[in-house]
Structure formats: structure tokens, C-alpha cells
């Protein structure tokens, strides 16, 4: 729960202003982007995600570096991805 | 590709290591504390202490929110979970944390309905799907996770969900740092500031540490080079006679933090007069509770909470480890009676606890460095 994981916004979900479909290491899930509503997020933007919420907007270079680092730490990131896979947020 | 980067990083790490050594005054020793479990994890995983002169000691502070939950609060949560028609939901990290009467996992084995969730929004979904049950979310974490809990309560209120509440155990980082600074046990030369907490609170709340206590603080990222760079920045401040808050992680952390996140926390939660921290005892204004206007979503208002205090097991020295007074391997039960499989204390449960990080990686750090420099 403490890991901030980078994800790329795939689409802003229609009808849910606060929800976006986000790709995290190939796992696509709905993420709440309501804490970044002044960033005008769009598909292709990268965000740092904590427990289903985008907490900050980051650039792609930072996102790729953070992903490489997380993929190297092993178990803790695997657990986080597994938890994300089980997530199914469907309303903001 | 990763191997190429790792090699390049090792080169950069050695260059930083030389710069760090050149800034150390002969005959002076330095103690820097990191207050983020993620940093502790990186330090041990990558054997960073082996890149530092022996006169620099890294001390691990109370930066793991799972580790600082006192046993009495775990018992309270289990008590709620055992009430009829209740489903308790929790992050996976919390499942093995022992209270006085066992852990969530132990309680599940005895029949309590406890489910692991990734997000508080998943917990809210469980509530929508189970209208005949009351669903409680075990809310833990520093300011990094508090906005997510607050947003979920706002969502539940907007939808009028009547069978959802949170058991709020959110803690705030600044009072914990102040407690460490006021403690006579430890002489510190500076702080490696937490990364993700700072994305929410920003850098300003740390300014009193430089101004009133004369200690520098550098907010740091999580990669090995970030931490080495931050140590270099701390030493440079000391060498130049400066004492400031600096932001090494500006690529992610805005100086002002995330104002929307701070606003939603403040809308839903308020400071408690005091809260017990494992190892640090009672600290004033160091945790959050649900405001009265959202009482319908506050498990503490809905259920009778036993609220008992439970002393840590005698053999357990998590308190000293969390204050940075003891290194993990100096605890009497480290690696013998207390291991990640059978943890006695919280520091061994969470993968970001200092003991688990050292147990899993630290023991091998010297070999790792030999490999890297071969």
C-alpha cells in the first residue's frame, strides 16, 4: 500500500469525471483521478498511483525510471500488482 | 536494458560515494535518519551503507505506517470484525500484523469476515454489493493514503451509502519527527525526508526542523541514486554551514504539495488530541479521526470500541528500532524467534519495516557490493 506506482492514462472514462482507465505494467484498471482535477489529465499522461488514486502527475522519463526500479524490487511490487489486478473500482 | 542501466547506476553510485567521502570532516561522525519505509527498503536492498564512509550512520525512523500501529488498535479492529453482519476490509499489508489476540489472518481462520482490498474504493464497492452487511475499512497510513480514504468517505456520503464506515488509524508525519527530535535518546545530524508523503504535504511543513532544531532535511526519491544524492546534499549543507529544507525529488514532489488532497483530508478528518504510536508512546495531535459531520461513516461512533492498551511482548524491541535507537540486528529476537514467517513485532511484518528489509536483504549487502565492483 505504500508503493507509489506509475501508470499511463489510456482513457478518461465517459460519465465518470473522476475515473480513468490506466495501464500499469500491462494491468489495466480504473483509477480515481479526482485529486488531480486541476491537471486536466489526458490519455498519454503518466501519473503516480497510491491505493487506487492518482496523487501526482509525472513525466514519462520519471515514470519509466520508476517502473524499472519497481520491477527490480521484486516481491513488494508483485504484491502491489496482484492487489491492483483484484481491484475493480467502477464508480468514482 | 536494465542491466546496462544497473551498470551505469553503479558507476554513478561510485562517483557519488567519492563526493560524499570528500565532504566528511575527519574525526566527525554523522547520523542521518530516514522516515520512510520505502527508503529503508532501498537502503538495505541495494546495500547503500556499503557505499558510505563508516563515519556515516543511517538510522531508520518511524516511517512505516503499519509498524507504528499499536497492538491495542489491532485488537479493536478485530473486535469490530467479529461483530455480527460485519465485513472488515483491509490492505494486504495489515493482515499479518499481530495484536494482543492475534492478527486479521488468525481472526479469519476463526470465522470473521475479513477481505483484502487494493483501494478504499474497493471497500466501498463491497458495501454496495452487500446491502445486508456493514462494511468497515481499516484505514491506515500517513498523509499519502489519508486523501484516498477521505475521497472515499465523500463518495459514500454523496451516494448515500448507509452500510459503510472507516476505522480511522491515519497518522501524521510531522508530530512523529518532532517526538524524535525532542527525545534525548538520539543525536541526529539531519533527515532524509519522505518522498510520497511530501507529494501531499509539500516541503513547507518541515521548515521548523531547520529553523527551530537546526537540522537540515532533504526530501528524497526512492532510487538508490536519489538517496545517495540526498546524503550528499545533507553533507554539503553541513559543510557550507547551511541548514535548510531542500527537495531532491522535485520531479515528483511540488514544494506546496497537493492542495486538493489536503483540502479533502481537512473536510473529512480532524486531528485527535493524542494517539498511541508503537514504540513512541502517546503523541499529541499526531493522528486523524473522522469529523462529527461524517459520524455516520465513523466505525468508532457506530461500534463499541474496547480501546484497551496492550503492552508489546517483552522480548520485542520494535519501539527502540522505530526510534532509531537500535539497529534491527541488535534486537534480542531478530532472526531467531522473530522472522517474516513468524513475526513478533510489526517491524518484521511489513516489507517496508526496518527488520524485514534487513532480514531479506541487508545480510547480503556486502556480497552484493563485491559483485557490483568485480
Structure summary:
The complex is a heterodimer of chains A (92) and B (374). Chain A has two helices and five strands, in the order E-E-E-E-E-H-H.
Given helix and strand content, the structural type of chain A is alpha+beta
Q: Give a count of the beta strands of chain A, DSSP E runs of length 2 or more.
A: 5
CATH topology group of the largest domain in chain B: Rossmann fold
Q: Given the structure, what is the number of helices of chain A? A: 2
Oligomer: heterodimer
N/C terminus separation of chain A:
19 Å
CATH class of the largest domain in chain B: Alpha Beta
Largest sheet of chain B: 5 strands, parallel
The stretches of 5 or more residues of chain B where confidence is low (pLDDT under 50) are: 366-370
The overall pLDDT of chain B, averaged over residues, is 91
- Which percent range describes the beta-strand content of chain B? 15-25%
Task: Tell me about this structure.
The complex is a heterodimer of chains A (92) and B (374). By secondary structure, chain A is of the alpha+beta class. Chain A has one domain: SH3 type barrels, CATH 2.30.30.140. Chain A has 2 helices and 5 strands, in the order E-E-E-E-E-H-H. Chain A has a 5-stranded antiparallel sheet with strand order 3-2-1-4-5. The longest helix of chain A is centred in the C-terminal third of the chain and has 14 residues, at 60-73. With 374 residues, chain B is α/β, with parallel strands linked by helices. In chain B, 39% of the residues lie in helices and 15% in strands. Chain B has helices at residues 2-23, 37-45, 71-81, 104-109, 120-129, 146-159, 173-182, 196-201, 207-213, 224-239, 259-268, 299-302, 318-323, 354-360, 365-373, and strands at 30-34, 56-60, 86-90, 114-116, 134-141, 164-170, 190-193, 217-219, 245-247, 269-271, 274-277, 281-284, 288-290. A 5-stranded parallel sheet of chain B has the order 2-1-7-8-9. A 4-stranded parallel sheet of chain B has the order 4-3-5-6, with helices on both faces. In chain B, strands 10-13 form a two-stranded antiparallel ribbon. The radius of gyration of chain B is 21 Å and the shape is globular. The two termini of chain B are 20 Å apart. The model of chain B is unreliable at 366-370 (pLDDT under 50). The chains are: A alpha+beta (92), B alpha/beta (374).
